[in-house]
Amino acid sequence: MHPAIAKFFGYESDVPDAEIIADWRRRTRELCKPCWELKYCPYGPLVEQSPFPPSRKSEAIAHHKHLMTCLANGRFPDGRKLDAERRKLFEAMTADFSEDDNPDEIPPLVEEVSCRVFGHMCPVFYCAEPLTETRDRRKHSRSIPREVMLKVVRRDGQICQKCYEPVPDDQVEFDHIIPFSKGGTSTADNIRLLCRDCNREKGGSLESLLSPNPIEHYFELQEKPIRKANKRA
Length: 233
Description:
mainly alpha, DNA Binding (I), subunit A, two-stranded antiparallel sheet
């Protein structure tokens, strides 16, 4: 495990990888992100106090080249002049740059705990408590109640919600959108109708629900103080 990944999870760099993974899974096995049920983030601006996952090495190298080009030309790619404050920021960022500080790839475990909107690690994973701010406890059943199945069939019109083809009665299957293993509930708002083939293709990954690497949002946050300073000036 790359040291940047261990640091993101809050572990010292000398802790063995197997110990980090086992401890993290133990601490978070009963957790879910509050936004999954609340439909909004209860942390608000506090989310921005949580760390960002490190960017991939290829992305970090590309961004470093971008900053160096801006410094050399004195302008952004769109032609805007590079002001003194941004020049100072870019010089500090490029002076400390080392491509080996970034991992080649980001493990799925990192993506699963990252906020799909802001990209930061969800604060609930720092607490690692058996309960979240959501109304329901995490101890719920994998089985789907019959009334939920009927409601989903009526709502989805017996159309597969992945391939959008009509589904024969003997091939109707029900899928947890947020996987049960990740804290998803067996309620109608977390269940969708799929055909047998599409349901077999789906695994327990949350990749389709999570945001891409949030490096652009990170650099927007870096520029916030600069914008405020320019406005005051």
